[in-house]
Write a structure and sequence with these properties.
The chain has 10 helices and 14 strands. By secondary structure, it is of the alpha/beta class. The protein folds into 2 domains: 98 residues, Alpha-Beta Plaits, CATH 3.30.70.120; 157 residues, Vaccinia Virus protein VP39 (Rossmann fold), CATH 3.40.50.
């Protein structure tokens, strides 16, 4: 079966909204990349902070119809004005086509994310994470993932317990394990994300530390032990969900534990901070990268 690839270039602040709209409209796989210049492609350790993102969706040709028009209408209904292009992709190529855009990248002082199909010569202090994200969100290229990785590098210490709420590809959960966490729980409502997280954990020798399951916080918590006592909780999702689950996010922390949340656009920063404060956490800092925010908060009982 051949596929139609829909490529929508959208403002960075609307990336996740556009991905959700295309996923709903096509019922197919969706992934996100940054637009690249030729200079980017010639580098093997690059940072992408462009003002737009490209969202790709795939539709079987036999039910493609007016793929470009359908995509534009679905995005327009969300108030997004994209540039939309389409191309034909053979079945044997469609699941591999995005790999050319995914390169080795360094985060903070020590974390290096290496695609599973590339090679990298590590330095002694490097924390190297081998990743094959599949169609799950979390390659490290997005500003929100970058900020979360760099926050984890600052906050995770050997022996800590860490929770990744909305694990996507597992990049954050596995990074925490490689930084020395003794126990990492990872949850996501998408079964594909859980599968990809488990695969990537095995590839990094972290399968005994990172336990992933379908679910969320509150009544959807999938593990037998309670969602509590974590030294660090990270949630790289979207502002609306963070606000909705602010109380269980904070409740999952040990006294003085650190909460790291991202996926928050600038216009919802104050609303998100207020929700975390209402849940009992103290906002300790906000980092901005483009239109995106990463908020760190501390559970009651902790020092600054």
């Amino acid at each position: 079966m051949d596929y139609i690839e829909i490529i929508a270039t959208v403002p960075a602040s609307q990336t996740e909204q556009a991905a959700d709209a295309l996923r709903a409209a096509t019922g197919g796989d969706v992934w996100i990349e940054a637009p690249f210049t030729q200079a980017d492609l010639e580098s093997d350790a690059i940072v992408h902070r462009h003002g737009s993102r490209q969202v790709h969706a795939y539709v079987p040709r036999d039910r493609g119809g007016d793929a470009a028009g359908d995509a534009a209408r679905a995005l327009g209904a969300q108030g997004i004005e994209p540039r939309v292009a389409v191309r034909d992709v053979a079945e044997e190529d469609w699941a591999e086509s995005w790999k050319e855009y995914f390169h080795v990248e360094r985060y903070g002082e020590r974390i290096v994310v290496v695609p599973s199909w590339r090679t990298f010569e590590r330095a002694a202090a490097d924390v190297v994470l081998t990743l094959d994200p599949g169609m799950a969100f979390g390659t490290g290229q997005h500003e929100t993932t970058r900020m979360c990785l760099e926050a984890l590098e600052r906050q995770v210490r050997p022996g800590m317990r860490v929770l990744d709420a909305g694990c996507g590809s597992g990049i954050l959960a596995i990074a925490a394990a490689l930084l020395g966490a003794r126990e990492v729980r990872a949850v996501d409502i998408d079964p594909n994300c859980v599968r990809v997280t488990e695969t990537n954990a095995r590839a990094n020798g972290a399968e005994a530390t990172v336990l992933a399951a379908i679910g969320s916080l509150g009544d959807a918590w999938p593990f037998p032990e309670p969602a509590a006592g974590f030294d660090v909780v990270v949630a790289n999702i979207i502002a609306r969900v963070i606000i909705e689950i602010a109380e269980p996010l904070v409740a999952a922390l040990a006294p003085g534990g650190r909460l790291i949340v991202s996926g928050v656009i600038g216009e919802r920063e104050r609303e998100t901070c207020d929700a975390l404060a209402a849940a009992g956490a103290r906002v300790a800092g906000v980092r901005a990268m483009g239109d995106w925010r990463c908020i760190e908060a501390i559970a009651p009982g902790g020092a600054a």
